């Protein structure tokens, strides 16, 4: 049986949302709206503190791969944030989706691997997929669904989140363990964030209950982190004669439109085996034209291809990451997740 996630609050602290009424199964399921091939995801805007008020609901911030599960008349498709078909990488999730009651649907959520304490572990997810560029299928991954964008011939993106959540909870009632409902709670955002941080979670997501589903970073969804973690492009490395693997630090960049912006380096978080793999791979990507304007006799520049997940504590005044630590590589097909410098806090 799959592991279950820890709840943000105890049952006696705040009630979870529940469907107000079940769907009317006698209602004809007519194809009123054509099923879209893909819906660009709604993205959460980074904020330093959670919002207040009854209009906001909160969830755990999952540390995994953002996916859309399409349940279609011809079968199931699992699509990454960047638009790639990864159905074959998550067979257990696909099989669970086929067993959901109801007709056609598009579920928005995150694939994660849970540790023994019910926390999402990005490194474990990567290992279950065989690492970057691996061909392995993950049988351990669990899909936490947090939105329903299409159901039984109806496009739900124009309806408010509270309605979509009620329909989602009804759809997932009795679902196989490989697809679980991402717990939604209402309460004090500061208390929820404190609880999340004390449990070692990455943070929380705040969502406005009355808003439709809008693609992009609109501010309808907010992310508040305990420890910041983002994806950055590796654009080279600093050679070292003393560090095992020959890498002293990795050179990192964020995205600014079609350009790259240097955000500093990271020299912790990877072991000798990681360093050897990184150097071997980056050496194959060597280039004489660096993606960012840097100079140094010990610097080796690489084509912007490898994406690293980096944990850090904030930003310095000159725009570099503070206390950065390497967490692992993301797949090249997940390049849509590379940090957008427009998200960087100002001041």
TrEMBL record:
<protein>
    <recommendedName>
        <fullName>DNA ligase (ATP)</fullName>
        <ecNumber>6.5.1.1</ecNumber>
    </recommendedName>
</protein>
<dbReference type="InterPro" id="IPR012310">
    <property type="entry name" value="DNA_ligase_ATP-dep_cent"/>
</dbReference>
<dbReference type="InterPro" id="IPR012340">
    <property type="entry name" value="NA-bd_OB-fold"/>
</dbReference>
<dbReference type="InterPro" id="IPR050191">
    <property type="entry name" value="ATP-dep_DNA_ligase"/>
</dbReference>
<comment type="similarity">
    <text>Belongs to the ATP-dependent DNA ligase family.</text>
</comment>
<feature type="region of interest" description="Disordered">
    <location>
        <begin position="1"/>
        <end position="34"/>
    </location>
</feature>
<feature type="domain" description="ATP-dependent DNA ligase family profile">
    <location>
        <begin position="134"/>
        <end position="225"/>
    </location>
</feature>
<dbReference type="InterPro" id="IPR012309">
    <property type="entry name" value="DNA_ligase_ATP-dep_C"/>
</dbReference>
<dbReference type="InterPro" id="IPR014146">
    <property type="entry name" value="LigD_ligase_dom"/>
</dbReference>
<dbReference type="Pfam" id="PF04679">
    <property type="entry name" value="DNA_ligase_A_C"/>
</dbReference>
<feature type="compositionally biased region" description="Basic and acidic residues">
    <location>
        <begin position="8"/>
        <end position="27"/>
    </location>
</feature>
<dbReference type="GO" id="GO:0016874">
    <property type="term" value="F:ligase activity"/>
</dbReference>
<keyword id="KW-0436">Ligase</keyword>
<dbReference type="Pfam" id="PF01068">
    <property type="entry name" value="DNA_ligase_A_M"/>
</dbReference>
């Amino acid at each position: 049986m799959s592991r279950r996630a820890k709840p943000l609050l105890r049952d006696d602290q705040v009630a979870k949302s529940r469907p107000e009424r079940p769907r009317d199964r006698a209602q004809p399921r007519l194809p009123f709206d054509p099923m879209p091939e893909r819906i660009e995801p709604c993205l959460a805007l980074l904020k330093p503190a959670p919002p207040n008020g009854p209009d906001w609901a909160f969830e755990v911030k999952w540390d995994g791969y953002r996916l859309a599960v399409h349940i279609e008349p011809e079968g199931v498709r699992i699509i990454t944030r960047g638009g790639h078909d990864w159905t074959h990488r998550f067979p257990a999730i696909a099989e669970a989706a086929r067993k959901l009651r109801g007709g056609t649907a598009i579920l928005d959520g995150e694939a994660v691997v849970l540790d023994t304490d019910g926390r999402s572990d990005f490194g474990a997810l990567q290992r279950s997929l065989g690492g970057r560029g691996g061909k392995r299928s993950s049988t351990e991954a669990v899909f936490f669904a947090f939105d329903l964008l299409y159901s039984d011939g109806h496009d739900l993106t124009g309806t408010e989140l509270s309605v979509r959540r009620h329909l989602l909870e009804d759809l997932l009632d009795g679902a196989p363990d490989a697809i679980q409902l991402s717990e939604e709670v209402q309460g004090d955002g500061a208390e929820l964030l404190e609880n999340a941080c004390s449990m070692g979670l990455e943070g929380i997501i705040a969502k406005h209950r009355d808003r439709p589903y809008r693609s992009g970073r609109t501010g309808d969804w907010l992310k508040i982190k305990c420890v910041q973690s983002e994806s950055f492009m590796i654009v080279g490395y600093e050679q070292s004669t003393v560090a095992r693997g020959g890498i002293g630090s990795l050179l990192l960049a964020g995205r600014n439109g079609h350009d790259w912006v240097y955000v500093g380096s990271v020299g912790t978080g990877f072991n000798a085996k990681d360093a050897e793999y990184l150097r071997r791979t980056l050496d194959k990507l060597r280039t004489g034209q660096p993606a960012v304007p840097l100079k140094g006799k010990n610097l080796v520049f690489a084509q912007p291809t490898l994406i690293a997940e980096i944990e850090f504590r904030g930003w310095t005044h000159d725009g570099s990451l503070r206390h950065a630590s390497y967490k692992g590589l993301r797949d090249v097909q997940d390049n849509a997740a590379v940090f957008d410098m427009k998200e960087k806090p100002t001041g």
